[in-house]
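> example.struct
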C-alpha cells in the first residue's frame, strides 16, 4: 500500500489525534491554489520590489492586484527551504537539514557506475534520508484530505535524490519533473519523470542534462533541444484545463532562475543590449521566461473563467545567488571572514560589488548566508475580488506558514504540533491575532552569517560563532541592510535572543 493511500486509510485517526479544528464555516466554493516557487530569486529581481533593468510585468501584476509581503523569509538554500515548506516546521527542528546525496543517476547515465552498482548505492541513499514516520503529515496531504487534486511540477521533493513512491507519500496525486537535485542544474535532461514513468525529451542527449559552466559563456541554445521549463509550463496548463471542474492545489517548483545560466534564446529586451555580458543577457532572459510563464498561467485562468476562483502565491526558496557576475569577491569575503571584502562593514552586497541587477536589493549576503540577502524572500498573493488590490504587509512570516494558510483556504485542518501560523487573516485585511514571537532559520555554513532569529519586534540575531559566543544584532525596522551591529549596545537583548535560538536549534519535533 502506498504512503498516500495509507494516509487516506488513517484519515479518521489523523483528524482526531493529529489535526486541530477545521474551519467552522468554510466558504461555499473553495478556491484553487497555485504556488509558484522560484529558485534563488532575490526580491531585488522583481519590478514590484525595485528591479529597474529586467521588466517583470506579469509578476508585478500579481502585486498590483493583490498583496505584497515585505517581511517574509525562506531558508538559506534549497533543501532546508523546501523542507520547511513541505513540513510546516522551521528548519532548526531535528531533520530539517538532513538530505541525501545527489548525482547517482548522472553517474549511472555517464557509464561511471553500472546499473547494479547504481541500485546498491540508490538503496543506501534511500536509507540516508530522514525516514518518514507513519503519522507524519505533509503540505499536499492537507489539501488532499480536503478533497483537492494535487500536483507538483519541477524540482520534486526537497530537490535531492527521490523516487515516485516518496513523492506520492508527500501527497502529490500527479507529479512531473526531476528526481535528482544535480540533474536540475541543467535545463536539457535526456528524460524526466511523470508519476513514476520515465519519458524522454527530444533532442537531449547529454547525461549531465546540458549543465553549463559557471562562467555562462556558452552559445545560446547550448545543451540540447527541449528546455525543461517549457515541458513544465505545458504540463501545468494541461493540468489546469483537465481539473477546471474540481478544486486543485498546484505547486510549481521551477528551476528558474537557478544557474548555471542556459536559455533556448535571448529575450528581445536583452538580445542587443549594449553593455550586458552574454551571461547577464542569458540570466535576464531566464527571469523574463519565468515572468512570461506566470503570464501564461494567468491567461489560462482568465480563459477558463477561473481567475476569481484561484489564489496565486509567488515566492522563492531563498535569497539571491550570482550565476553571471563577480562571485569571486563574494567567495573570498566569506572564506576570509570579511578580510578581503573591502567594504566598510565587511559584508558582501550586490549593490556594491558589481551585480548589474542588484538581485539582493542592497541586502547583505547571498544564498547560503544567514544575512538578509540569503534569507529574505519575495512573497506575493493574488485572489481577485477577495484580497484587496495593491496592498502590502509587514507581517512576520515564513515558508512554514504556508501549510496553515493552505489549510484555512481549502477548508481543511492544520496538523497538530507544526510551527505554521496562517496569515489568511492578513490576506483578507482582517486582524492577524495569531502571530510569531520570532522566526528561526538554521544555517550550518558558519562563515556566511550563520543561524538567525528574527523577532516580531524587528530585532535580528545572527549567530557568527556560537563556540566563541559571537553574535550580531540588527534592528531590521531601521536597518534591513544590516550595516549596524548593535550587539555591544544591547547585551541583555542579545543574551535573551541567543538563549531562544539555542533552544530552537536541533529541537525535537512536536508534530510526531
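> example.seq
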Amino acid at each position: 500500500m502506498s504512503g498516500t493511500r495509507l494516509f487516506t486509510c488513517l484519515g479518521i485517526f489523523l483528524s482526531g489525534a493529529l489535526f486541530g479544528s477545521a474551519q467552522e464555516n468554510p466558504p461555499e466554493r473553495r478556491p484553487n491554489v497555485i504556488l509558484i516557487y522560484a529558485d534563488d530569486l532575490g526580491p531585488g529581481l522583481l519590478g514590484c520590489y525595485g528591479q529597474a533593468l529586467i521588466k517583470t510585468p506579469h509578476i508585478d501584476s500579481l502585486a498590483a492586484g493583490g498583496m505584497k509581503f515585505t517581511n517574509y523569509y525562506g531558508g538559506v538554500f534549497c533543501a532546508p527551504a523546501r523542507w520547511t515548506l513541505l513540513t510546516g516546521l522551521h528548519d532548526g527542528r531535528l531533520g530539517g537539514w538532513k538530505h541525501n546525496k545527489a548525482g547517482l543517476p548522472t553517474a549511472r547515465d555517464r557509464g561511471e557506475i553500472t546499473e547494479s552498482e547504481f541500485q546498491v548505492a540508490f538503496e543506501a541513499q534511500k536509507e540516508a534520508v530522514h525516514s518518514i514516520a507513519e503519522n507524519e503529515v505533509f503540505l499536499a496531504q492537507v489539501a488532499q484530505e480536503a478533497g483537492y487534486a494535487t500536483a507538483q511540477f519541477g524540482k520534486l521533493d526537497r530537490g535531492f535524490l527521490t523516487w515516485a513512491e516518496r513523492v506520492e507519500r508527500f501527497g502529490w496525486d500527479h507529479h512531473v519533473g526531476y528526481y535528482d537535485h544535480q540533474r536540475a542544474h541543467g535545463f536539457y535532461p535526456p528524460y524526466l519523470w511523470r508519476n513514476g514513468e520515465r519519458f524522454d525529451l527530444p533532442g537531449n542527449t547529454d547525461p549531465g542534462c546540458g549543465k553549463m559552466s559557471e562562467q555562462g559563456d556558452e552559445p545560446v541554445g547550448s545543451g540540447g533541444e527541449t528546455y525543461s521549463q517549457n515541458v513544465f509550463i505545458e504540463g501545468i496548463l494541461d493540468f489546469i484545463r483537465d481539473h477546471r471542474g474540481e478544486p486543485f492545489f498546484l505547486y510549481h517548483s521551477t528551476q528558474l532562475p537557478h544557474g548555471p545560466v542556459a536559455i533556448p534564446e535571448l529575450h528581445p529586451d536583452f538580445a542587443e543590449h549594449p553593455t550586458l555580458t552574454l551571461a547577464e543577457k542569458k540570466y535576464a532572459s531566464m527571469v523574463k521566461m519565468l515572468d512570461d510563464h506566470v503570464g501564461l498561467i494567468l491567461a489560462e485562468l482568465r480563459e477558463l473563467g477561473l481567475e476569481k476562483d484561484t489564489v496565486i502565491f509567488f515566492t522563492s526558496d531563498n535569497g539571491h545567488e550570482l550565476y553571471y557576475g563577480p562571485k569571486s569577491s563574494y567567495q573570498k569575503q566569506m572564506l576570509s571572514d570579511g578580510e578581503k571584502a573591502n567594504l566598510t562593514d565587511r559584508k558582501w552586497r550586490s549593490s556594491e560589488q558589481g551585480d548589474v541587477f542588484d538581485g539582493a536589493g542592497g541586502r547583505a549576503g547571498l544564498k547560503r548566508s544567514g544575512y538578509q540577502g540569503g534569507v529574505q524572500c519575495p512573497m506575493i498573493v493574488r485572489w481577485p475580488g477577495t484580497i484587496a488590490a495593491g496592498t502590502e504587509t509587514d507581517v512576520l512570516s515564513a515558508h512554514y506558514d504556508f501549510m496553515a494558510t493552505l489549510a484555512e483556504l481549502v477548508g481543511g485542518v492544520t496538523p497538530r504540533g507544526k510551527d505554521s501560523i496562517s496569515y489568511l487573516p492578513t490576506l483578507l485585511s482582517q486582524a492577524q491575532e495569531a502571530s510569531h514571537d520570532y522566526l528561526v532559520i538554521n544555517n550550518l555554513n558558519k562563515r556566511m552569517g550563520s543561524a538567525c532569529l528574527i523577532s516580531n519586534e524587528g530585532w535580528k540575531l545572527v549567530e557568527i560563532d556560537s563556540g566563541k559566543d559571537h553574535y550580531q544584532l540588527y534592528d531590521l525596522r531601521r536597518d534591513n541592510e544590516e550595516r549596524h551591529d548593535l550587539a555591544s549596545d544591547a547585551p541583555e537583548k542579545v543574551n535573551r535572543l541567543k538563549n531562544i535560538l539555542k533552544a530552537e536549534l536541533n529541537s525535537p519535533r512536536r508534530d510526531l
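> remarks
The CA atoms of residues 300 and 477 lie 39 Å apart.
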